Every structure is written in C-alpha cells, then in structure tokens.
UniProtKB/TrEMBL annotation:
Signal peptide: none annotated. The keyword Membrane does not apply. Residues 5-406 form the Amidohydrolase domain. It holds the Pfam family Amidohydro_3. SUPFAM superfamilies: Composite domain of metallo-dependent hydrolases, Metallo-dependent hydrolases. Gene3D superfamilies: 3.10.310.70, Metal-dependent hydrolases, Urease, subunit C, domain 1. Its EC number is 3.5.1.91. This is N-substituted formamide deformylase. Keywords: Hydrolase. It comes from Flavonifractor plautii.
C-alpha cells in the first residue's frame, strides 16, 4: 500500500471497499466526521475509521475521483461492444448515469445518442437511468425523461434505484439477521419506506418503469410496498416495474410479485459463486425460496436474464448453464435443483424476456417475420445438447438488424 497516493480497493460486488489512510485523509473521513456516515463507514475499537466503506459512501468517493472525460469514455463504449457481440449479445440494458464524467449524465446520454445516430453503436442499448434522489429524478423528467433516444440503437427504458447492497458484503437487507453475523440484518439504502415510495410514485406518475436492485427479503418487501402504493395511487397507469436480482424471497413475496406484475431481472450466473456462500449467510430455512427461478416460472412471472457485468462476466451462455444445471462452472452442486429451468425457459428469459423488460417485445426478442433480425449462430443445438456442454458452446456469428456484426474467424 502507499502513504503517498490515495487508494480505493473494491470488493467484486462493488458494494463495499477499503480506503488507505491517505484516501481517508483527503476525503476528510476521520474520528470527528465518520459518524456522519452511520453504518456505511466502519470504525475500529477506538472509534476511528478503519477504512472499510459501503454503499452510499462509495458513491461520494467515486464522485471525488477525477473523470477520464467524455470522449475517452465513449471510445471505450465503441471498442468494448465488439467483445459483447463476440459472445452473442445483440442488446444490453445498463445503468451508466453514475459513470458520467463530472456527474453530468445528460452529456453521456447525448454522447451515446450521437454514437447511435452516426451508426457507431452496433449493439442495441437500453439505458436504466440511475437516479436516487427526488431532485435528480424530477430534473430527469423536466429534461424530457425517456425522450433521450437515438433511433433503434439507444433509448432510456427505465429508472433505476437501489434498495440494498450485496449478500457477499452482508449489506443485502434481510428481514432477520444474517445466520453467520447475527448482529446485522444488512443495510437498506433508504431507511424509511416513505423515501423509496416517493421516488417510485414520481416515476409512476410519469408512466416510467422503475427497476429496483433488491437482493435481501427486507429490501424486497420495501420494493413491493412501493410498487403497491404507486399502483394504488395511480391505478390507470401501467409502467412495467421490475425487481433486480430477487435473490432472497419468501413464498408470499413471490406471490406478491405475480399479483403486482413485477418483472424479475435475474442473473443466473450468480449461482457459480453464491451457492458456496448463501447457505452460510442465510441458514437453511431462508434458502427454500431463494434463487427461485423455477417458482417464478411456475407463477407466470416475466423473467429477464442478464449477467450484472462487471460484477460477473458478460457471457450469456454461462448464465444459461447455471439456470439449467444449478451448478458452478466446475460442476459442483446442484444448488436447489428443484428451481432449475429447461434450456428453452432459460433461453426465452435471455431473449424474449429481456425484450419484454425493456418494453420492446413487439419489435424484437424472437425470430419472427416483422421483428428485428437480431440473432446468432452457435456451434451446437442449445436445446438438446448435454447441459454441461453449454459452457463450451461457441458463438459463430452474431447478427443485429440483419447485418453480421461478428464472425468467428474459424467459421
């Protein structure tokens, strides 16, 4: 470590990090100020900050890090999309407002729209606008909200919120204490239900869907309460609200999701790591309806599969493998095998399910006359091959709008 340069080390989930002493000094986080951050900044036995910071504090820290600038950021978008196309991705949904240079997300949105309009975006890009305060959310709608679009390659699809943290960092908000840390239930991002309600009702009033990160059952309860209130206050509007991750749920919460028609944004690849930590974090009883994609399917929930990149790798076939086998990449498991999906169900959630979640199921998501010709060729039949082969399946060609945007050199 360095005493000269400020350093922030992030856990892989991006929900907890560690600062060195130089960073604490520059950020003015000390014995006198650390109390301002509450449970989001840890202290040692003397009451001094020990450098471990979580959730909201990380947002403040990231805002203090000098930006690389808008143009380099847009160049990275153009360059990196080729890696995604090579894995068969034709559309992505991403929340990028927090990565905007100088905290100016609208400049980033204008830049992405410009890329789309001049044909530099080969992927279809649906932005989930991360707006966590009432003032920034109102400004978003004042500026035109979902009108920040660029043809069929870039659009804003939802407002994004976060209700808790991650299971690995023990910041996912549970209704009861962690099994392996009985002194904590995790951390709700919004301590009061009314705070979350206000944001959801505001977006709902503008007929804008809200997708809310919720891993723990405590956070899920708050999210469902907020959606229920918005629908009760404005029942004539029907934006497609969604819950992102939906990992730890009760049977009753799953039924409420179905009753409220909440879309489940699910990342099956989480099985690869979480199957090794979830039993210890949760104990046996709470596991029964966790990572419950089979139950979601049986209840008729709309599921949209993704990867949560950069927390996990962006390879979709790895997610299909985990959804079907409920095993990690080395074959350990199965983990809650009664929640496994068929290959067809998993592929549907990755294609038609994603299109539904972004409100685009009438134009894409299936191979059908009249829909956008977004598809890929793979080296085997994903519906009939042995499930373990899903990990080694290769994308041979990727097409977006009928144009070949990736070709395996060997094919």
């Amino acid at each position: 470590m360095s005493t000269e340069y400020p350093i922030l080390i992030l856990r892989s989930c991006f929900h907890v990090g560690a600062l060195n002493s130089r960073a604490l000094e520059l950020l003015h986080i000390n014995r006198d100020t650390v109390g301002h951050y509450g449970a989001f900044a840890e202290v040692d036995e003397t009451g001094a900050p020990n450098g471990v910071v979580k959730e909201n504090v990380l947002d403040d820290i990231k805002a203090a890090i000098p930006s690389v600038g808008l143009r380099p950021l847009l160049e990275q978008v153009v360059q990196s999309q080729h890696d995604l196309l090579a894995e068969g991705l034709t559309s992505i949904q991403s929340d990028d407002f927090k990565y905007a240079p100088d905290e100016e997300p609208y400049a980033l949105m204008d830049g992405l729209r410009e890329l789309a309009e001049r044909g530099a975006l080969k992927l279809r890009f649906a932005e989930q606008a991360l707006l966590t305060e009432p003032e920034t959310l109102e400004e978003f709608f004042t500026r035109g909200g979902a009108c920040f679009g660029g043809g069929d390659r870039f659009r804003i699809s939802t407002v994004k919120l976060l209700a808790d943290g991650s299971l690995g960092a023990r910041t996912a908000f549970l209704r009861e204490p962690y099994f392996d840390a009985p002194d904590t239930c995790g951390l709700p991002i919004y301590p009061e239900q009314a705070q979350l309600d206000r944001l959801v009702v505001t977006a709902h009033r503008h007929n804008m869907a809200v997708a809310i990160h919720a891993i723990g059952d405590g956070a899920a309860e708050m999210v469902l309460n907020a959606f229920q209130r918005a629908r009760a206050e404005l029942p004539w509007l029907h934006p497609r609200h969604g819950m992102v991750h939906c990992q730890i749920l009760s049977e009753g919460q799953l039924r409420r999701m179905a009753e409220l028609d909440v879309t489940a944004f699910v990342q099956p690849v989480f099985i690869n790591g979480d199957m090794h930590i979830a039993p210890g974090r949760l104990g046996g009883n709470r596991l029964a309806h966790s990572y419950a994609w089979g139950d979601m399917e049986r209840l008729g929930l709309h599921m949209a599969f993704g990867t949560d990149c950069p927390v996990e790798r962006f390879h979709p076939l790895e997610g299909v493998y985990c959804a079907v086998t409920r095993r990690d990449f080395t074959g350990n498991g199965p983990f809650l095998p009664e929640q496994a999906l068929t290959p067809y169900q998993a592929l549907y959630a990755y294609t038609a399910g994603g299109a539904y979640a972004s409100g685009e199921e009438r134009i894409k998501g299936r191979i059908r006359s009249g829909l956008l010709a977004d598809f890929l060729l793979v080296d085997r039949n994903l519906l009939t091959c042995p499930p373990e082969e899903l990990l080694s399946a290769r994308v041979l060609r990727t097409y977006v709008g009928g144009a070949c945007v990736f070709r395996d050199p060997s094919f």
